[in-house]
Write a structure and sequence with these properties.
Elements: E1 7-14, H1 20-30, H2 48-53, E2 60-67, E3 73-80, H3 88-96, E4 100-106, H4 113-124, E5 128-134, H5 143-154, E6 162-163, H6 172-182, E7 195-204, E8 208-217, E9 219-221, E10 225-228, E11 234-236, E12 239-243, E13 247-250, E14 252-254, E15 258-262, E16 276-279, E17 298-304, H7 310-323, E18 328-334, E19 338-345, H8 348-361, E20 366-368, E21 372-373, E22 375-379, E23 384-387, E24 399-414, H9 418-427, E25 431-438, E26 441-449, H10 450-453, H11 457-464, E27 470-481, E28 483-490, E29 493-494, E30 500-503, H12 507-521, E31 529-535, E32 538-545, H13 561-582, H14 589-598
Parallel strand pairs: 1-3, 1-4, 4-5, 5-6
Antiparallel strand pairs: 2-3, 7-8, 7-16, 8-15, 9-14, 10-11, 10-16, 12-13, 12-15, 17-19, 17-20, 17-21, 18-19, 22-23, 22-24, 24-26, 24-27, 25-26, 28-29, 28-30, 28-31, 31-32
Helix pairs in contact: 7-8, 12-14
Length: 601
């Protein structure tokens, strides 16, 4: 029987690709969590898409038994967290369930932007932090330089840091000993009344909703009647267990432990992440502080290319929503694209992952509209509207002003790329707030409108710095901006799927680019098609697709030809005017995709 002093709960935090999942593999292997035959690379990354892209999307937990060098038995609860900025809410809730973190820094790359973001989150949660210098087996590894960077940029002591290699397994024993010596055991009393933190929940097709919990005080066991404090619903615990990483049933979980319970809940919305669980007949006076719910910041429309796949798309979204509470969707219809859904995401990577999973797991051909952010529209009558879709913008005469979301961006880059980066940030309406140096690397802080970053900022940053710069951001609120709705008209009809919110200064340039792109992508018809970009009733750019012209004069020759030619040309003109009036312009799918790519070029 273990005491609470022999438990260590810790999260693994790092920038993307610094080796979190690989070091988790080595620790699991060392502690005998899986046999040699069961081990595979990134054992905690369960989704195919995680394994292919080499990124962690969902935080995963493991309970391991470890015998230290002095012969004592310990229980280690590991939470492997994502490193990407889009999934930082996964990191924040994992940190709340632990007392300490191991911070992994790639000794060939040094401190990166998300290393900073995740460390600051751990510091805010009062974590004890152990720095780990990974990839020391590589020739480019610079241990002392990386230590200095950690001390200068982050400001944490590296005297207790451990050099290691996730690939060869060197240094893993030292990490385990350091965890036991440095990280504090959980605080809590198993004889108190039950108090649990709901860390995560997901849907299992056989068991219903699986709830991941951290027991703060008391103990939770089978057949106990529990209550969710945010919804006041009561449930009976049917199953209690831990992941080793395989699910293993237990009789009870005591204070300080992390595990899962199953209560027969069928609907994921009944389990709110960050909720407090207590015993039904011994309720708590006040709930745990919990943590901020994740809010979607990027919105875009998803439409099936083939309208007969609408139901398939609807079912696919419902299934993905079961395991991803941060993703939201609602039905919308577009005159150009038919029926689809307006979906909310945490960022562009999140959007990419969801669309890829829909296409791969549910075999749906998708069309995505321009990603946009949520604007706050202040009306003259003091009402405030949240605007996700630019085509729903109210009449400009009743709008007092529009606010857009701004972010605080942290960019870490080798100093030779500083000039081009500052230029990009200024072009994106950025305001520089800070610039520090650590060796030959610059740490830049900018405030930038989220709408400017949402498209291609990360791609452009990587391309001009040959992949050496790293970027992280946090949302700092809404600010008033001179924003206008740019409408695109094809043959006099507005195409709602191409409407976008842009800053007044950039409207003309973007309007011209969209018109030029559409001119190349929309096929010619029998009549002339004007393509226009407009702000309200004012046309700011125009291109014209010439119609096909049949030569009606070839057979005419001889006397009185002039009048007969005139007659035939007038007749042709009338026919063209009629077909322009009633003819429908087919806008191919490539045209929509082409317009999306304008911002990337």
């Amino acid at each position: 029987m273990s005491t609470i002093d022999n438990i260590r709960n810790f999260a693994i935090i790092a920038h993307i690709d610094h080796g979190k999942s690989t070091i988790a593999d080595r620790i699991i292997h060392k502690c005998g969590g899986l046999t040699e035959r069961e081990m595979k690379a990134q054992v905690l990354d369960s989704m195919d898409i995680e394994r292919e892209r080499g990124i962690t999307i969902k935080a995963q937990t493991v309970k391991l038994n470890y015998k230290s060098k002095d012969g004592k038995d310990y229980i280690l609860n590991i939470i492997d967290t994502p490193g990407h900025v889009d999934f930082s809410y996964e990191v924040s809730r994992s940190l709340y369930a632990c007392e300490g973190s191991i911070l992994i820094v790639d000794s060939t790359q040094g401190v990166e932007a998300q290393t900073l973001a995740n460390v600051y989150q751990a510091m805010d949660t009062n974590h004890e932090i152990i720095p780990i210098l990974n990839k020391i087996d590589l020739p480019a590894s610079e241990i002392e330089k990386t230590k200095n960077q950690i001390e200068e940029v982050i400001g944490i002591d590296t005297s207790n840091s451990v050099p290691c290699s996730g690939k060869t397994g060197e240094g893993i024993d030292e990490i385990l000993e350091k965890i036991i010596q440095t990280l504090p055991p959980p605080r809590g009393n198993k004889n108190d009344i039950l108090k649990c933190l709901l860390v995560d929940s997901w849907y299992d097709s056989y068991l219903g909703v699986v709830i991941l919990i951290r027991v703060i005080d008391g103990k939770i066991k089978k057949n106990m009647k529990i209550k969710m404090m945010s919804t006041n619903q009561e449930h009976i615990v049917e199953k209690v267990g831990v992941f080793t990483p395989k699910p293993k049933d237990m009789d009870e979980l005591n204070s300080g432990e992390i595990g899962f319970i199953i209560t027969g809940i069928k609907n994921l919305s009944d389990t709110k992440v960050g909720d407090t669980i207590c015993e039904a007949n011994k309720p708590l006076k006040e709930a745990l502080p919990g943590f901020k719910p994740s809010k979607p910041v990027v919105f875009c429309g998803l439409f099936p290319v083939d309208s007969s796949e609408y139901q398939k798309l609807k079912d696919g979204l419902a299934k993905l929503k079961l395991n991803d509470s941060s993703f939201s969707y609602e039905p919308e219809s577009s005159s150009a694209l038919g029926l689809g859904f307006r979906c909310g995401f945490l960022g562009l990577l999140h959007l990419e992952i969801i669309t890829e999973r829909l296409e791969r797991e549910f075999d749906i051909n998708l069309l995505t509209t321009t990603p946009g952010v949520v604007y706050k529209v202040h009306l003259n009558n003091d009402k405030v509207l949240d605007l996700q879709n630019p085509s729903n913008l109210p009449d400009p005469t009743i709008i007092k002003y529009i606010e857009e979301p701004w972010i605080k961006a942290t960019i870490i880059t080798p100093d030779q790329y500083l000039g081009p980066i500052i230029k990009i940030c200024q072009n994106k309406r950025g305001i520089q707030t800070n610039l520090n140096y650590s060796g030959n690397r610059a740490v830049l802080n900018y405030e930038i409108p989220l709408n400017e970053v949402v498209f291609d900022f990360n791609d452009r940053l990587k391309s001009i710095t040959s992949g050496y710069a790293s970027f992280d951001y946090e949302i700092i609120g809404h600010r008033e901006g001179e924003l206008v709705k740019l409408s695109i008209l094809v043959n006099g009809e507005p195409v709602d799927a191409l409407a976008m919110m842009v800053h007044k200064d950039f409207a003309q340039t973007i309007g011209r680019e969209v018109c030029e792109k559409l001119k190349d992508l929309i096929p010619r018809h029998n009549f002339m098609i004007p393509i226009q970009a407009a702000i309200g009733g004012k046309i700011i750019a125009r291109e014209t697709i010439k119609g096909f012209k049949k030569d009606v004069l070839t057979k005419i020759h001889g006397g009185g030809a002039r009048d007969r030619k005139r007659k035939l040309l007038d007749k042709q003109k009338k026919g063209k005017a009629r077909s322009k009036q009633f003819g429908k312009v087919e806008i191919p799918q490539e045209a929509f995709i082409g317009v999306l790519k304008i911002n990337k070029d």
